[in-house]
Design a protein that fits this description.
The complex is a heterotetramer, with 2 copies of chain A (about 90 residues), 1 copy of chain B (about 220 residues) and 1 copy of chain C (about 775 residues).
Chain A (H helix, E strand, L loop, with lengths): L1 E10 L6 H9 L8 E15 L3 H16 L5 E9 L5
Chain B lengths: L5 E6 L6 H10 L3 E6 L10 E4 L20 H10 L4 E4 L1 H8 L6 E3 L7 E9 L15 E8 L3 E3 L2 H9 L3 E5 L10 E5 L5 E4 L15 H11 L2
Parallel strand pairs in B: 1-2, 1-3, 3-4, 4-11
Antiparallel strand pairs in B: 5-8, 6-7, 6-9, 9-10, 10-11
Chain C lengths: L2 H5 L18 H4 L4 H11 L5 H10 L2 H4 L4 H4 L9 E3 L6 E4 L4 E9 L1 H6 L1 H17 L4 E11 L12 H25 L3 E8 L8 E11 L14 E6 L24 H4 L8 H16 L5 E4 L4 H12 L3 E5 L12 H6 L5 E6 L4 H10 L4 E8 L3 E5 L6 E6 H5 L14 H7 L11 H9 L8 H4 L10 E3 L6 E4 L11 E8 L1 H6 L1 H17 L4 E10 L6 H21 L3 E7 L3 E2 L2 E2 L3 E10 L16 E5 L10 H6 L12 H16 L5 E4 L4 H13 L3 E3 L5 H5 L6 E5 L1 H13 L4 E7 L3 E4 L3 E4 H9 L5
Parallel strand pairs in C: 4-5, 9-12, 17-18, 24-27
Antiparallel strand pairs in C: 1-2, 2-3, 3-6, 4-6, 7-10, 7-11, 8-10, 9-11, 12-13, 14-15, 15-16, 16-21, 17-21, 19-20, 22-25, 22-26, 23-25, 24-26, 27-28
Helix pairs in contact in C: 8-9, 8-11, 9-11, 11-14, 17-27, 20-21, 20-23, 21-23, 24-27
The chains are: A alpha+beta (about 90), B alpha/beta (about 220), C alpha+beta (about 775).
Bound molecules: adenosine-5'-diphosphate and magnesium ion.
Adenosine-5'-diphosphate (ADP) binds next to strand 4, strand 5, helix 18 and strand 16 of chain C.
């Protein structure tokens, strides 16, 4: 079975995020008020072959631990869904 | 004496400062040899340098993929044996990713790549990079990075300070580095990472020879 | 082969697939004229099919065939004893002695940069690098010549806020694209220029130059020789990107998004890591002697690379489309043949060398696929699989070399006479030359460019003796694998649309003069020039006239200077809303220093030194930045350029610098003597007192062939005598000291104020 | 009201994605087989003040158009949810 995966890699709370801060500072001047807490992370999408959802999730979790995030500063949010056949 | 020391300069696909490192080390009398990242041994090297560049493209995160290169196990063993390992710029990033040095390197505070010459201050002389250099010595050395903003958790930082493992600090912090850190070392002082490029400051014709001071210390420890 | 075989071959797999019903005006949709279609039919002896039509359309485009400019380009001087390869190849190559050759080339990436500044500029860098390592040269330096609309925040600038915001987005994106790609691919960006002018607001110019070095014996040409040799595609897989105009050929619109454009991006994304591995792999292949020719895939992709290599080698080629690695499913043959996907090369490999090629490519993790083979007979045949059906069969040379040449109509613009009648010299003199100087220094076109080049790795390879910021950048001539020498290269890129708009012929000659003088200021003898001709719509007769004039001006200057033009690029259709940009020929000059043992003096003033003005007096203000930027006056005539005098000046400047008789040297260009004086004072951190300057006209004139020289008092007499002996006028005008820039009776500002204005011109 | 926003900025289909491709090539050697179609985009999080969901969505859509993505090569996926009070 194939699974569609979305991994969000984001900076841990408390870790400074210069791109997010810069974006946030730029917004009011462009007419976008009322925006706060801007954080810029990565969105990694992929297709994973696995026998079931649990296996797919385990695989992705291992990838996150070993490669996709640097645990010193980052954490991940994993989303795994069975791929729609038509795709 | 640095004469005759054998240095392995590791080449990842995407490294680009390897020839520069060789040139600077040989200028100081060492013999430097390129070691491709697929090698599993470092030959009979007395010291190892991980040079600057963009190993494996550095797209995901600097050093994220490089740390899995076969040669890195040999580097880790070499380091564990107390032998001198120096990571310059991308090499520093790889050493942190590989867990041979603590912390991480984030994007520069200004969100711009920075290629310029900065003033550094020797903050500790307990590592192989600065042994014999008086604390407080100022050195003029180029930086060249986008992700050189050092960060770590407060406990680690306190530890670095207490154990005198902050090797070099920027006089004028160019990138937002925690504590103006330009370079750090491991507990043994034999593994050092720094963002500035000492190999770019080894020739008066290029503007500064201050890098020789650091590289000579490193070679003498080998 | 008999000619008959050349017309309609019967080969295994059957005849070329018959022409499908083609819309009658399909060729027009593809940008081909009716006459061009007739020519194609004559060449083929039958109507072309859709794939063939696509191949002609991309190869006979202005971009690939230079069909509007070629008749004019022929007038450029291109030969000299040291020229190993002139225009027509991927890059020009000169012999600099000691077994070392230097390859150079400049190219534009204007249009992609207007819509995706970062990737447009990045892929421009990637493209020019491939032109250089294709020749067997290791790229050691990049230069960028950038032209943007005003970004706001300056006194003279009254542009609309949305325009300035957009120009700023473009400027910052382009600079970070060059930074992102150049730094990561590992080639230092050592020189360039950045200018802001309203004519570039919708159509920025991004020209990138690359210089490479090679042992003379490694020189290779992009040609296919030896029937039976393999055509090997190296690097990235092929996608639908960069198909552009030919996409009207798609047999069915691509599903999803907003129609076909959603899946056929017109802008490519650069992959510097792939390119870095390609550089290393290609140079290793050449060192191992396992390829007979190599060619980059740029505009017109596989069609261009296969037809050009075959035509240059006087051979044919069979291409097996199924062997081309694709990034996407369902690509049609025309898409594969015309895709401009980045980071690909075509190598011509003798079959017995293929295992070694595979080994080298595997080491650098570069994909290598045999996609064709060299054949006798000069035909380029495209099949879907080996031995499969012929999808296209055309004479390779007809694609590569036989595009029609046009002598498009030309006429001088009608405003020409009127523009010249008025004179900038009649403008009222400034009440305060000091405040005009500060205004000029804070103009982002004049001010400090370190905000840009600080983002470029300009030190890699330990060669950069003079970093960006001087008249020309100076590099050691050194690279792994080259014989050791003490030689150095000086590089400068220059353009000046202010001058060229006023008088494209004289203006272009003055641009060449300035660029050579920049190089000479470092003690280097100018050796070769490359050019990028950025012009408007060639269907406008005034644009063709501008081009023709510019080429004549460049030719005259290069002939006088004995400077061969070894390569170039023409970028047309730089227009928006029907308005053409100012003519902007950009030149890159490379000079040679025989003994680079100490850094050249540079422009910094030393306290106590004596200041000379070397060169003929100049007071003309036509086309000057003072007249155009500060007074908004664009008419008048350019100050005269005396080419013989310029040649003498270059000689003497080189000699004075080499003999170390001067301790500071800086040419007079943008902003005139006032700005040059200020730049020298700022660089040295010391003031200067000058007298005997005739008025604001002499202060702000950009008359060519003038240099400011600073010498230690003890050397002053030698400098003067030396100049007199060579017949170039010289005049002592002052001395360095104190903390003010003073020109008696005209201006008096502190160095600190000048520095403040100059360093904050492009607010970050 | 405050809304939690997640914007995914990703390259359009057909646009080459060197970071994704490089990651995909590296995976098998690291022991992660069966992974394909890797694409690396951005995940931007922020808090937005608006009177209702529709207004928040409109604001974020305008930000995407004007600032967060270049429609020449990128597209965005917007997620807006009312913020949990506790946060
Ligand atoms: N885009 C750029 N990239 C690199 N260097 C640049 C760039 N723009 C300007 N420079 C450098 O700044 C200096 C001044 O540029 P410019 O005023 O154009 O010089 P000149 O008038 O002598 O041609 C030069 O050394 C040039 O190489
Ligand atoms: Mg100059």
């Amino acid at each position: 079975m194939t699974f569609d995966v979305l991994v969000e890699v984001r900076l841990k709370q408390g870790v400074a995020d210069p791109p997010g801060a810069t974006l946030e500072r730029a917004l009011p001047a462009l007419g976008f008020g009322g925006v706060s807490g801007v954080r810029v992370g990565k969105a990694i999408r992929m297709s994973v072959d696995a026998t079931d959802q649990a296996e797919a999730e385990a695989l992705v979790a291992a990838m996150c631990d070993r490669l996709l995030a640097n645990p010193v500063i980052e954490e991940t949010v994993i989303n795994v869904a069975e791929a729609v056949a038509a795709q | 004496m640095s004469q005759g020391r054998r240095v392995a300069v590791v080449v990842f696909p995407g490294s680009n400062c390897e020839h520069d490192a060789v040139e600077a080390l040989e200028r100081l009398g060492a013999t430097a040899e390129l070691v491709f990242h697929r090698e599993t041994t470092l030959g009979n090297a007395d010291a190892v340098v991980l040079p600057g560049g963009f190993a494996h493209g550095d797209y995901l995160r600097p050093g994220a993929i490089a740390r899995f290169s076969p040669v890195m196990s040999a580097v880790a063993e070499f380091a564990a044996a107390g032998r001198p390992v120096l990571g310059i710029c991308n090499g520093f990033q790889i050493l942190t990713e590989a867990g041979l040095l603590p912390g991480a390197l984030q994007k520069n505070q200004g969100l711009k790549f920075l290629c310029t010459t900065v003033e550094l201050e020797v903050a500790s002389n307990t590592s192989v990079l600065c042994s014999g250099i008086s604390i407080g010595t100022r050195l003029s050395i180029p930086i060249n990075h986008f992700e050189g903003n050092y960060t770590c958790d407060p406990v680690t930082y306190d530890q670095l300070v207490l154990e005198e493992r902050i090797v070099l600090r920027y006089v004028d912090n160019p990138n937002g580095s925690l504590g103006s850190i330009a370079g750090i070392c491991n507990e043994g002082g034999n593994v050092v990472g720094l963002m500035p490029h000492p190999e770019r400051a080894c020739d008066q014709l290029l503007g500064s020879e201050d890098g020789c001071v650091l590289l000579r210390s490193f070679l003498e420890a080998a | 082969m008999s000619p008959a075989e050349d017309i309609d071959p019967v080969l295994p797999g059957g005849r070329v697939s018959p022409a499908e019903d083609i819309d009658l005006d399909l060729h027009r949709q593809l940008g081909l004229t009716d006459e061009e279609l007739v020519t194609i039919e004559k060449i083929l002896g039958r109507p072309p099919n859709r794939l063939e039509l696509a191949m002609y359309s991309v190869m006979w485009s202005e971009h690939c065939s230079y069909k509007s400019s070629r008749v004019h380009l022929k007038r450029l001087p291109t030969t000299a004893p040291h020229v190993l390869v002139g225009p027509g190849e991927n890059a020009g190559v000169i012999d600099v002695g000691d077994g070392i050759a230097v390859a150079l080339r400049i190219e534009s990436h204007n249009h992609p940069s207007a819509i995706e500044p970062y990737q447009g500029a990045a892929t421009g860098v990637g493209g020019i690098l491939r032109d250089i390592f294709t020749m067997g040269a290791r790229p050691i330096a990049l230069c960028d010549s950038l032209w943007f609309g005003p970004t706001g925040g300056t006194r003279a600038d009254a542009s609309d806020a949305a325009d300035t915001a957009r120009s700023r987005w473009i400027a910052e994106g382009v600079v970070s694209g060059i930074s992102g790609y150049g730094n990561s691919v590992g080639v230092p960006t050592v020189a360039g220029e950045i200018t802001f002018d309203p004519c570039f607001a919708s159509n920025p110019l991004v020209n990138v130059m690359c210089v490479g070095v090679l042992p003379v014996e490694r020189l290779v040409l992009g040609q296919a020789s030896g029937a039976g040799n393999l055509a090997v595609l190296l690097g990235s897989s092929t996608g639908r990107d960069g198909i552009g105009g030919v996409s009207v050929l798609a047999s069915a619109p691509l599903e999803g998004g907003d129609g076909s454009s959603a899946k056929r991006p017109s802008v490519q994304v650069g992959d510097p890591y792939e390119e870095k591995r390609l550089i290393e792999a290609c140079l290793a292949l050449l060192d191992a002697g396992v390829v007979v020719g190599i060619q980059d895939l740029g505009g017109a992709g596989l069609t261009c690379a296969t037809s050009e290599t075959a035509a240059r080698g006087g051979m044919g080629m069979e291409v097996d489309l199924s062997a081309v690695p694709r990034r996407e499913a369902g690509m049609e043959p025309f898409e594969v043949m015309t895709s401009e996907s980045q980071e690909r090369m075509l190598a011509i490999v003798p079959p017995e060398k293929m295992p070694r090629v595979e080994e080298i490519c595997a080491r650098w993790e570069v994909a290598a696929s045999v996609v064709g083979r060299v054949t006798p007979g000069g035909r380029l045949i495209v099949r879907d699989t080996i031995g499969g059906i012929e999808l296209a069969s055309v004479p390779a040379a007809s694609l590569a070399d036989e595009a029609p040449l046009y002598e498009r109509p030309m006429s001088a613009p009608s405003w020409d006479a009127a523009v010249r009648a008025d004179a900038a010299e009649h403008l009222p003199p400034p009440g305060d030359c000091g405040s005009d100087l500060l205004a000029l220094l804070s103009d982002p076109s004049v001010s400090d460019k370190s905000w840009a080049y600080r983002q470029y790795d300009h030190q890699l390879f330990l060669n950069t003796v003079v970093p960006p910021g001087g008249d020309a950048s100076v590099l050691k001539l050194k690279a792994p694998g080259l014989p050791a020498t003490n030689k150095g290269l000086a590089i400068s890129v220059d353009g000046n649309p202010r001058w060229c708009a006023l008088d494209p012929r004289a203006g272009t000659a003055m641009v060449v003069a300035e660029s050579t003088l920049n190089v000479a200021c470092t003690g280097a003898v100018p050796k070769a020039l490359v050019n990028c001709l950025n012009f408007g719509n060639p269907e406008h007769p005034t644009v063709m006239w501008q081009l023709s004039e510019a080429i004549d001006g460049m030719s005259a200057a290069c002939r006088a200077l004995r400077l061969p033009v070894v390569g170039g690029n023409v970028s047309f259709y730089n227009e928006s809303g029907g308005v053409d940009i100012h003519p902007t020929p950009v030149v890159g000059v490379v000079g040679l220093i025989d003994h680079l043992l100490r850094p050249p003096p540079g422009m910094a003033l030393t306290d106590g030194s004596v200041l000379f003005l070397l060169g003929p007096p100049g007071t003309g203000l036509g086309g000057s930045r003072w007249a155009t930027s500060l007074r908004g006056f664009t008419g008048g005539t350019l100050p005269a350029l005396n080419l013989n005098m310029h040649v003498s000046l270059i000689d003497i400047v080189v000699s004075l610098v080499r003999q170390r008789l001067v301790c500071g040297v800086h040419d007079i260009s943008d902003g005139g003597m006032a700005v040059s004086l200020a730049e020298m004072a700022i660089a040295g951190g010391v003031g200067v007192a000058v007298s005997g300057i005739e008025g604001h006209a002499e202060l702000f004139s950009e008359a060519p062939t003038r240099v400011l020289l600073a010498a230690a008092p003890a050397e002053a007499e030698s400098v003067e005598r030396f100049a007199r002996d060579s017949g170039v006028p010289i005049r002592m005008i002052g001395s360095a000291g104190g903390d003010r820039i003073r020109v008696a009776g005209l201006l008096d500002v502190t160095v600190a104020t000048a520095r403040e204005a100059w360093s904050t011109g492009f607010p970050e």
